[in-house]
Amino acid sequence: MKKRIYILNGHPAEASLSKTFTEIYAKTARAAGHEVRLTHLHDLEFDSDFGHSNFSDTKPLEPSLEQLISDIEWSEHVVLAAPLWWGGLPAKLKGAIDRTFLPGRTFDTRVKEGTLPKPMLGGRTARIIITSDTPGWYMQLIYRNAIFQQLKKQIFGFVGLKPSRFTHFTGASTAKPENVARWISKVEKIALSAS
């Protein structure tokens, strides 16, 4: 089944493994007949500071952020590739999420008092590709997969992107060419199934 796929390279640098993975995913998915839109975070110009203590009177979205959220709304499947920095997402990527995942657009706060807001991006799935230097066993045992839980439950799940599937590549800073080739092959496989 062909899908509309939105891919976000969440690395702020011009060159990165995240960029490589998103471009490979896009190329493979297009070849399989899927409709694909790809955005590189480093190309987006916006103020990443949310700048408010609540959701009233928020800053108008810059054109690049409006396009980002419009592309997510257009999609049936969202792919995010990003590095793990200091246990979290790069500041510019987190800023893009802070600025665009707003009530009335991604979740509805007009619900019964005491209940969680209603997700507005339901019916979409997600694949998140994380690169890090933290070994998988350490991520799970010591950090309790905190970044995965945050993305799955507090960000993507909160707005309705379910399920969120994860691919984690470790040893990214000093990756040997054979490891990168193996990772690329894995990205191609998940792109073929648009999962």
Low-confidence stretches: none
Total number of domains: 1
Radius of gyration: 17 Å
State the helicity in percent bands. Answer: 25-40%
Name of the CATH first level: Alpha Beta
CATH superfamily: Flavodoxin domain
Give a short account of the largest sheet.
Answer: 5 strands, parallel
CATH level-3 fold name: Rossmann fold
Q: What's the quaternary structure here?
A: single chain
Q: Concise description?
A:
It comes from Ahrensia marina. With 195 residues, the protein is of the alpha/beta class. The chain has one domain (4-192): Flavodoxin domain (Rossmann fold, 3-Layer(aba) Sandwich).
Overview of this protein structure:
With 195 residues, the protein is of the alpha/beta class. The protein has one domain (4-192): Rossmann fold, CATH 3.40.50. The chain has helices spanning 17-31, 63-74, 91-100, 136-141, 146-159, 177-192, and strands at 4-9, 35-40, 77-83, 107-108, 118-119, 124-132, 161-170. The strands form 2 sheets. The protein has a 5-stranded parallel sheet with strand order 2-1-3-6-7, with helices on both faces. Strand 1, helix 1 and strand 2 form a beta-alpha-beta unit. Helix 1 (17-31) packs parallel to helix 6 (177-192). The longest helix has 16 residues, at 177-192. It is globular. It starts with a strand and ends with a helix. One of its GO terms (cellular component) is cytosol. Pfam families: Flavodoxin_2. InterPro entries: Flavodoxin_fold (IPR003680), Flavoprotein-like_sf (IPR029039), NAD(P)H_dehydrogenase_qn (IPR051545).
